[in-house]
């Protein structure tokens, strides 16, 4: 008995150390994201600026106005947005992989990205601006059309399959996704002048994002991710299999609806503000599971942490590699992520 | 042999059939071009051949009265210019403006979309798309010569005016000039081709006089201001480095381009522009309502000294983007915007 206690407490300790290390890496990456760029800014300066801004103190004269502007108005919102988007996408990816019991499921499986792309495309082509929304017209219409697409896909799945089996959901999502994509292609081909902007939007970018986007997204993710964590037990049970889950007492259909809706909201809002950035939502759940086991109470928040960190790192690379131009973030995530993921995942396979 | 999935005999059969099909289609290839085909559009884009430069100089020194027509276009292709030019097709706005100033406005029968509105052209001139021109319609107008920019080769097909060459119409390609000297050569080429060389020389002399005036003033400037020039607005901001005539113009007036370490046109991340903190910001964007206000409203740009001092100016789009004699207009605008005390105060329109 003693031995078992010791083993368990060792595992828990190791886990706690891993969590601490993860958080430390996250902070380092965040500082690097704010500090590195066309003008390098030391962490000390960053802290001074943050401290002064948050507590209304004056900034010492040795830090130029431009540096303050760079940190507070350009880099900090960008880094925070990248972090939140990465976190939201990863949490959403975890949910999709667990609900659909498919390691290749991503947050985009249900078609939210196609819907958001179509909504954004229409706003760009027709130059729509809703007066109260102003600059937020594009993200909000994108989010709405993304959610609408998922709603249609899941409703369709539930109508044709009373039990809402996973295969049905995935197929319905794919069908809607492809259909909406084709509409987007037709609309884009007729409005060639806007093609560059649409494609650029689709590639994903964190440039020129203001604090309002950060705040809105933080609110959505700040509610969405804890909601997902609340369902950790149900997610754990669902991985045993659908019959087993129902036997234990999980209201499968209802829980599935909630989780898919949460996933769509998280992904939709992330996509609406930053474009379609792939790969993060696919790999970070796997990395988290490999390091911390499959308990969702750990996997969900930690994959969000990893996703956010990774996104900040990818954005850092995207904006420094071909300065003064920028690479689209979506390209960098897959570029770095694929080999990195291959290494982690298959190294384990070789051993075991 | 038996166990192979695809037997060697089958492979040989397929290859023979393909060879027969290809050979039979080769009969459909058109007759060799009437004009010796030195035109290699893709190569021309990279080399930016200016082989006519040497030739035109030789001609200027020998014979001023009956000058020989150029035999090569600025891209380096061999061309045969007809003796009489009564109808001209001009597929770039820069070229249209040059022709108008040479007094040939009423000979232009075909223009393209961006040239609509230029003063001095006929009302009945037909409008085409320079990137995807309707070659058949162009041919029906029977122009004696067609001047085009090599930008047209970047469109859907490599050589959109090939059909015209095939029926014997002279097509002269002019690559976009990167230096002011090349601009002068372009003007001389068009002038010689249209037998208006004297007028061409007058235009160039006028340019050179203005440039000299500005250079003399520029010599008195000791502290060069840093200038940042945008040619496309947010969200995809574009500026340029060395190797384009706009950069040469900035240096001519005695200023420095903040991106002079870069080459050619490139997209700019907003934070890089903010970090450079230029003294003056210029823009020639004309596709949005108020480009100056748009720049001033960008998040995080408000602490730049150019925006604090309200040193953001609009430079006439046509004058600063078309490689022809009208760059002088933009040159003065830029000079006045950057150094009002030296060159006079800036006026938005003159």
Q: Spell out the CATH superfamily of chain A.
A: ABC transporter involved in vitamin B12 uptake, BtuC
Secondary-structure element order of chain B, N to C? HHHEHEEHEHEHHEEHEEHEHHEHHH
Largest sheet of chain A, if any? Answer: none
Q: Look up the CATH topology of the largest domain in chain B.
A: Rossmann fold
> What structural class do the secondary elements of chain B suggest?
alpha/beta
Query: pLDDT under 50 segments of chain A (min length 5)?
Result: none
Number of strands of chain B: 11
Output the radius of gyration of chain A.
21 Å
Unreliable spans of chain B are 30-65
What is the terminal separation of chain A in angstroms?
29 Å
Number of E strands of chain A: 0
CATH topology of chain A: ABC transporter involved in vitamin B12 uptake, BtuC
Biggest β-sheet: strands ordered side by side in the sheet of chain B = 3-2-1-4-5
Number of domains of chain B: 2
Strand content of chain A: under 5%
* Percent helix of chain A: over 70%
Shape of chain A: globular
Largest sheet of chain B, described in full?
A: 5 strands, parallel
- Count of individual domains of chain A: 1
Shape of chain B: globular
Mean pLDDT of chain B equals: 83
Explain briefly what this protein structure is:
The complex is a heterodimer of chains A (352) and B (350). By secondary structure, chain A is an all-alpha fold.
Question: Can you offer a commentary on this structure?
Answer:
The complex is a heterodimer of chains A (352) and B (350). Helices cover 78% and strands 0% of the residues of chain A. By secondary structure, chain A is mainly alpha-helical. In chain B, the strands form 3 sheets. Chain B has a 5-stranded parallel sheet. The longest helix of chain B has 23 residues, at 197-219. Chain B has helices spanning 8-25, 41-47, 51-62, 93-101, 135-140, 162-166, 180-193, 197-219, 245-252, 270-276, 291-296, 305-308, 317-321, 327-338, 340-343, and strands at residues 88-91, 108-112, 126-128, 145-149, 170-174, 226-230, 238-240, 256-257, 265-267, 280-283, 312-314. The A-B interface holds A 37-39, 65-66, 68-70, 72-75, 196-197, 200, 205, 207-208, 210, 319, 323-326 and B 234-236, 239, 259, 262, 266-277, 298-304.
């Amino acid at each position: 008995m003693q031995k078992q206690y010791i083993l368990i407490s060792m595992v828990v300790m190791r886990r706690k150390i891993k969590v601490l290390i993860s958080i430390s890496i996250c902070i380092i990456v965040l500082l690097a994201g704010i500090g590195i760029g066309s003008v390098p800014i030391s962490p000390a300066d960053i802290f001074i600026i943050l401290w002064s801004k948050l507590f209304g103190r004056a900034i010492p004269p040795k830090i130029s106005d431009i540096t303050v502007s760079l940190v507070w108005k350009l880099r900090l919102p960008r880094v925070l947005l990248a972090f939140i988007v990465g976190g939201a996408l990863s949490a959403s990816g975890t949910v999709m992989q667990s609900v659909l019991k498919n390691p290749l499921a991503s947050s985009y499986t249900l078609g939210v990205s196609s819907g958001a792309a179509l909504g954004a495309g229409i706003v760009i082509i027709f130059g729509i601006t809703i007066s109260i929304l102003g600059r937020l017209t594009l993200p909000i219409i994108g989010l709405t059309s993304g959610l609408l697409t998922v709603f249609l896909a899941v409703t369709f799945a539930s109508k044709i399959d009373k039990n809402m089996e996973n295969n049905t959901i995935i197929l319905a999502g794919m069908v809607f996704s492809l259909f909406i994509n084709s509409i987007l292609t037709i609309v884009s081909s007729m409005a060639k002048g806007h093609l560059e902007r649409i494609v650029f939007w689709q590639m994903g970018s964190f440039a020129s994002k203001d604090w309002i986007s950060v705040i809105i997204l933080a609110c959505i993710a700040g509610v969405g991710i804890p909601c997902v964590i609340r369902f950790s037990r149900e997610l754990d049970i669902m991985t045993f299999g659908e019959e087993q889950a129902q036997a234990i007492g999980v209201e499968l259909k209802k829980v599935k609806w909630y989780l898919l809706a949460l996933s769509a909201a998280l992904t939709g809002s992330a996509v609406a503000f930053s474009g379609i950035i792939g790969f993060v939502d696919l790999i970070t759940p796997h990395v988290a599971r490999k390091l911390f086991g499959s308990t969702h109470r750990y996997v969900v928040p930690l994959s969000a942490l990893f996703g956010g960190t990774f996104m900040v790192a990818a954005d850092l690379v995207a904006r420094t590699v071909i300065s003064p131009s920028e690479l689209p973030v979506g390209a960098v995530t897959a570029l770095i992520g694929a080999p990195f993921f291959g290494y982690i995942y298959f190294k384990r396979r070789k051993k075991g | 042999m038996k166990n192979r999935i695809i037997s060697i005999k089958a492979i040989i059969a397929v290859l023979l059939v393909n060879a027969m099909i290809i050979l039979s289609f080769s009969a459909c290839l058109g007759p060799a071009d009437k004009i010796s085909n030195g035109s290699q559009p893709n190569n021309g884009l990279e080399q930016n051949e200016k082989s006519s430069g040497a030739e035109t100089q030789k001609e200027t020194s020998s014979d001023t009265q009956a000058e020989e027509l150029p035999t090569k276009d600025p891209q380096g292709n061999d061309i045969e210019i007809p003796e009489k030019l009564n109808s001209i097709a001009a597929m770039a706005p820069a070229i249209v403006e040059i022709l108008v100033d040479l007094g040939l406005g009423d000979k232009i029968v075909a223009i393209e979309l961006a040239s609509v509105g230029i003063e001095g052209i006929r009302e009945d001139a037909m409008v085409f798309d320079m990137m995807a021109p309707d070659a058949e319609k162009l041919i029906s107008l029977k122009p004696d010569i067609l001047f085009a920019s090599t930008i047209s080769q970047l469109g859907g097909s490599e050589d959109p005016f090939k059909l015209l060459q095939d029926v014997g119409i002279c097509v002269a390609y002019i690559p976009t000039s990167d230096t002011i000297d090349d601009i002068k050569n372009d003007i001389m080429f068009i002038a010689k081709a249209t037998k208006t060389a004297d007028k061409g020389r007058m235009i160039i002399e006028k340019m050179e006089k203005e440039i000299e005036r500005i250079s003399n003033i520029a010599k008195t400037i000791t502290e060069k201001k840093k200038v940042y020039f945008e040619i496309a607005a947010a969200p995809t901001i574009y500026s340029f480095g060395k190797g384009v005539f706009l950069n040469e113009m900035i240096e001519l007036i005695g200023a420095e381009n903040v991106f002079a370490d870069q080459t050619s046109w490139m997209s700019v991340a907003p934070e890089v522009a903010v970090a450079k903190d230029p003294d003056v910001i210029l823009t020639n964007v004309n596709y949005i309502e108020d480009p100056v206000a748009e720049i001033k409203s960008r998040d995080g740009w408000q602490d730049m000294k150019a925006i604090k001092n309200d040193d953001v100016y609009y430079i006439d789009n046509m004058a600063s983007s078309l490689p022809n004699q009208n760059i002088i207009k933009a040159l003065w605008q830029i000079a006045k915007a950057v150094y009002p005390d030296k060159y006079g105060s800036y006026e938005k329109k003159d």
